[in-house]
Amino acid sequence: MMLFLLIDFPKFKPIAFEIGPFAIRWYALGYICGITFGWFYARSLLKKQRLWGGPAPISLVQIDDFILWVTLGIIVGGRTGYVLFYNLPFFVEHPAAIFKLWEGGMSFHGGFLGCVVAVMWFARKNGISILSLGDITCGVAPIGIFLVRLTNFINGELWGRPADPGLPWAMIFPTGGDVPRHPSQLYEAGMEGLLLFIVLAVMIRMGALKRPGLILGSFILIYGLTRIIGEHFREPDVQLGYLWGGLTMGMLLSIPMLIVGGVLIVLAVRRGAPQPVKTVQ
């Protein structure tokens, strides 16, 4: 089987560092760094009026306040989504386990819905554009997705489907049996994180933020597409397996994203960019 050609899975420790009795895990660090770096990037975008065709519709103070809202949306939505979509029978029998976030178990789709709620609530409360706040949120989101997918790899979790032993980068994961597998976490980090970030960054530089909803729709559409592609290499959760027609839960939850994203893009393009206000001299 040419197993001698396989790459040995790096032996990572799940804990990044410890401070006294407190241990910071790579998984938590991925979320912390993703939110922090995304916040810095969002602030830099809001400072550049040329990207918005005038003053940004969101102030720096507002984006600073929004960080707490979106963080809560990610955590509450992500955990709720995992409980409902991926392992409901277990959590019905063990409700206390819902709050054990350090044991892992977060759903991107749930986290995304949590962010949607946070965006809509914060925007209405502060009288700002929901679409523009959605644009800036989605424009920076791939940073966090990239880092969290890397931590999935470090933790040796969410590994891929069996691969041809001759595949140069096939790996045997510690919890995946003696079977060469695709390092699907890295595939997803590259597609859902790095590739999506680059595409959206180029669109932003080309003026996409001047059309409210365009970055939001593009993020939803492209993420849904890359997630479906990635699911073809990722082993389904053991408690779910394959669903109808070979679909996985990740695929099923991503299909509506293709529709919603496409609709938002069409509406943003038809709506056009807002015209700058002319002042009387």
TrEMBL record:
Biological process according to GO: lipoprotein biosynthetic process
Annotated compartments: Cell membrane
One Pfam family matching this protein: LGT
GO molecular function, one term: phosphatidylglycerol-prolipoprotein diacylglyceryl transferase activity
EC numbers, comma separated: 2.5.1.145
Membrane topology according to the record: Multi-pass membrane protein
Pathway assignment: Protein modification; lipoprotein biosynthesis (diacylglyceryl transfer)
Transmembrane intervals: 26-46, 66-86, 106-123, 130-150, 186-206, 213-230, 242-269
Binding site for a 1,2-diacyl-sn-glycero-3-phospho-(1'-sn-glycerol): 149
Keywords of this entry: Cell membrane, Membrane, Transferase, Transmembrane, Transmembrane helix
Segment forming the signal sequence: none
UniProt GO cellular component terms: plasma membrane
InterPro entries per UniProt: Lgt
Role, per record: Catalyzes the transfer of the diacylglyceryl group from phosphatidylglycerol to the sulfhydryl group of the N-terminal cysteine of a prolipoprotein, the first step in the formation of mature lipoproteins.
NCBIfam families: lgt (TIGR00544)
Family: Belongs to the Lgt family.
Name of the featured protein: Phosphatidylglycerol--prolipoprotein diacylglyceryl transferase
